[in-house]
Specification:
By secondary structure, this protein is of the alpha+beta class. The chain is about 45% helix and about 15% strand.
């Protein structure tokens, strides 16, 4: 099934502006948000807000409701968002402030949240911009501090915040076991898609298990992580403050999972996010990093190809490029592991 997005109109979203005490002058769909619709609302007093709309029509993955007890299940919906927003607020990490939440589906057949509109661009915009025009070092220093704040928070068990903070538990015996199961599942999708993946499948499966065998059991608490913390998921306000967005996947997990993603997405800026103190307190485990790096690259092959099968992503060549790049990384890691 292919999902085709229908852009919501001023009439569709006017009731939500009224819910926060405003009239609605105009609506603009914002780019991004493959799991939800994101709209900027131009309000009658000249201010703006942002609407998040979680509905099947807005979800390019066509995945349906995910089971939140699975840490890597489809991270979408108002329940996950509000739990994540509350946890980040308690931790002292900024995210767009929730102005109104509507789970009733009274005006639209969807969960809707209205949040503050944070002016300015993303950290990705800043890092990719004119080197002389922006204080990148200051932004990266603030990002390192944000990570320190986030990663000093812990939960009693691994899993999505919405589950754990409500006393629930997740499927799987450990973080590494969940990662291995997901990596093998992603791997099994690939032979039908690419002859290189088909040829490497047996050796890749063996390598995943070999890397998993080297990981020693870890006891104690799990770390609060964003889960997909690239610079595109960090807003930078004009005064230099940072706020996390796309927070529905917030969970307690091994911090190595976060660092594998940070290294991949921040690239040459990654070292600025790891101060000496950060390395000491987080105690990153090299064996977990090796396993999680391979698993992450596999997910970034299978995921984009899956999205192209079911969605109408605006730039399919970009997604194919992500899958191709990460397949190359997978095959390189396989060669180096043997």
């Amino acid at each position: 099934m292919t999902t085709t997005r229908k852009t919501l109109t001023r009439t569709d979203l006017a009731p939500f502006a009224h819910a926060i005490g405003h009239t609605l002058n105009d609506v603009t769909r914002l780019r991004g948000g493959s799991k939800k619709g994101v709209y900027r609302l131009a309000l009658g007093d000249g201010s703006t807000a942002v609407a998040y709309v979680w509905s099947p029509d807005e979800d390019l993955w066509d995945a349906g409701p995910g089971d939140p007890r699975s840490p890597f299940s489809h991270a979408s919906g108002l329940t996950l968002f509000t739990a994540a927003a509350n946890r980040l607020a308690a931790a002292g990490v900024r995210a767009p402030r929730l102005l109104h939440a509507d789970p009733t589906h009274t005006h639209l057949p969807a969960d809707v949240a209205i949040v503050e509109d944070l002016p300015g661009g993303t950290l990705e915009d800043l890092l990719d911009g004119d080197p002389a025009a922006v204080p990148k070092a200051d932004a990266l220093e603030r990002m390192a501090a944000l990570l320190d704040t986030l990663h000093t928070c812990a939960g009693p068990r691994f899993g999505k915040v919405a589950v754990v903070d409500n006393g629930g538990s997740s499927y799987g015996g450990s973080c590494e076991a969940v990662v291995v199961e997901r990596a093998l599942s992603d791997l099994d999708e690939l032979p039908a898609r690419d002859p290189r993946a088909a040829a490497a499948h047996p050796q890749l499966a063996d390598t995943i298990r070999m890397l998993a065998d080297r990981v020693q059991p870890r006891t104690g608490t799990a770390t609060l992580i964003h889960g997909e913390l690239g610079p595109d998921h960090v807003r930078v306000t004009p005064d230099g403050d940072l706020a996390l967005i796309d927070i529905e996947g917030l969970m307690y997990f091994d911090v190595e999972w976060e660092h594998v993603f940070l290294r991949l997405r921040f690239g040459r800026h990654y070292d600025a996010l790891r101060t000496e103190d950060t390395e000491d307190t987080e105690g990153l485990d090299d064996n977990r990093l090796r396993l999680y790096r391979l698993a992450m690259h596999l997910s970034l092959v299978a995921g984009p190809l899956r999205l192209l099968d079911v969605g109408d992503f605006h730039d399919p060549e970009f997604m194919r490029g992500i899958a191709e790049h990460n397949l190359g990384q997978v095959l390189t890691l396989l060669k180096n592991a043997s």
